[in-house]
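Entry for fe (ii) ion complex. Fields follow.
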Amino acid sequence: MSQSIPTEELPFHLTGNFAPVFDERTEFDLEVEGAIPPELAGRFFRNGANPQSGTSPHWFMGNGMIHGVELRDGQAVWYRNRYVQTPLLEEPDAPRMSAEGIVDRTRSCANTHVIAHAGRILALEEGSFPFEITKELETVGAYDFDGMLKTAMTAHPRICPETGELLFFGYGPTPPYLTYHRVSSDGKLMQTEEIDVKGPTMMHDWNITRNHIIFMDLPMIFDLEAAAAGGMPIRWSDEYGARLGVMPRDGGNDDVVWYEIDPCYVFHPMNAYEDGDKIVIDCSRFEKLAFGPADGKGTPPMLHRWTIDTLNRRVSEEPLDDRPADFPRIHDRVTGLPHRYGYMAGMGSGAETLGASLLKYDLQTGKSWTHDLGKGRQAGEPVFAAAAGADTAEDDGWILNFVYDAASDKSELIIADASNFDAAPVARVKIPARVPFGFHGSWIADPT
Ligand SMILES: [Fe+2]
């Protein structure tokens, strides 16, 4: 257990509010400061790494724990936090690969994201199968789309707002390095395509537009030799290069058009869309990512735009801000379509500072706003919950976010007006515990 190691010797992901919590709580009728908008009816779920042993070699590797709050009729009905019950949690030391070389994709951390599609709620981690959970955060089990899914599933699928399809990919350190999957609006896996990339790239996220998908073949690669020697399994490569691969949504490997770009790494695009013959991608871009000590010094991520000219087959690049920020989100209604607004977690120079402030960008005018969290307070990914109605403005809704308060060593769920971003939150839901900093989440509204 980590308790025996002096705190100052621990890596950041095991200290302060990154450190795991061990109680699984169920708390009803939470105290609220301010007024919860009554039209918010549903649940805010957020996933993150919470190593059950108390320690893990990397921030990305702890067991998944989901924290959730149900909102209804202006009340915060409950708070729950639950581990995703996977075989990795239950038998941490069992092998992931059989003697015959078969990978057990149910041995998942299940720690990265949680989404809802076709009546299922899925906890995701990019090396494994999804895990289905209930509205009360109980684990149902691994889900492989009725046996159709044979690869891992990214933690960053996209749901097309026009077709309801769930589009995703799987990647891994051994061939096939990349596989594309398309799931119908009612949850049937309809299409699977193996895609050629140059090598075992770490593809954390990707992009969709109305008609296309865009892969990011970037120079963070698996190095199994280094891993066998006890080093990081993933490293920056000066030789690999960087490419964007544009493919029609119903296409295959032969249809991919690859575009060289300046070397970089992107964990998270904000969104992508088509503009005539061009494809615009706004993303949080590292000029260089340092994943392990062997990578040397990295640079912080910042908002950046790639514009792919599909007619003349070239890409132009443009930095959009010089303030470090990551974990971009939009109104899900504009996924793959032109977006005006984006929201990000601002940060300093290290991952441990993620969420030091919240940022809103107007990509049309270039204006931006900062949501000041207050002294000693730190947030995470800003999730957008839409206001009721179909003809609302793109920023008509709320930003939901767990905010940690160092003075009280407790967290709140803040509900901030996205259209009045620099104002104080309209409501603060008091969580009677600490919610460790985590990764991604969703507002899962009740069906209307
Ligand atoms: Fe992510």
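NOTE: The chain has two helices and 32 strands.
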